């Protein structure tokens, strides 16, 4: 079975210039991806500010204090941006990602079972 797949892949790659590989994970939804990109950019700026604050304090520069304050503020903003990714993902899943269909093992609703019981009982009383 594996050799059949390999031969099929080789035959396709010989005919086509571009072979699409199957991905294991699906692409993130647009709002979640936007929030993730925003979080990465904010976090990287925060890390750069922390390094600059460290070197300014080593050098004894007057910029050490203001840069340290801005790095602390940026840390709060970066933490919120990472939480924003998680919140956006959960909201998107609740609005778009959940398919509300009962599985085959789910019990039918009580009204349907009651009506079904009445339908079964009705022919017995009519037959008598």
UniProtKB/TrEMBL annotation:
Keywords: Membrane, Transmembrane, Transmembrane helix
Keyword Transmembrane found: yes
Residue ranges of the TM segments: 35-55, 61-87
Region Disordered, residue ranges: 96-128
Protein's name in the database: Uncharacterized protein
Lineage: Bacteria, Bacillati, Actinomycetota, Actinomycetes, Kitasatosporales
């Amino acid at each position: 079975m594996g050799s059949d797949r390999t031969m099929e892949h080789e035959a396709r790659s010989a005919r086509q210039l571009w072979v699409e590989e199957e991905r294991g994970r699906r692409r993130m939804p647009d709002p979640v991806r936007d929030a993730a990109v925003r979080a990465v950019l904010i976090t990287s700026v925060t890390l750069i500010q922390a390094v600059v604050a460290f070197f300014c304090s080593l050098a004894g520069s007057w910029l050490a204090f203001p840069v340290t304050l801005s790095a602390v503020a940026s840390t709060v903003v970066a933490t919120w941006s990472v939480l924003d990714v998680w919140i956006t993902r959960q909201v998107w899943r609740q609005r778009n990602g959940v398919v509300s269909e009962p599985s085959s093992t789910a019990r039918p609703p009580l009204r349907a079972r009651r009506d079904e019981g009445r339908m079964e009982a009705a022919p017995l009383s009519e037959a008598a």
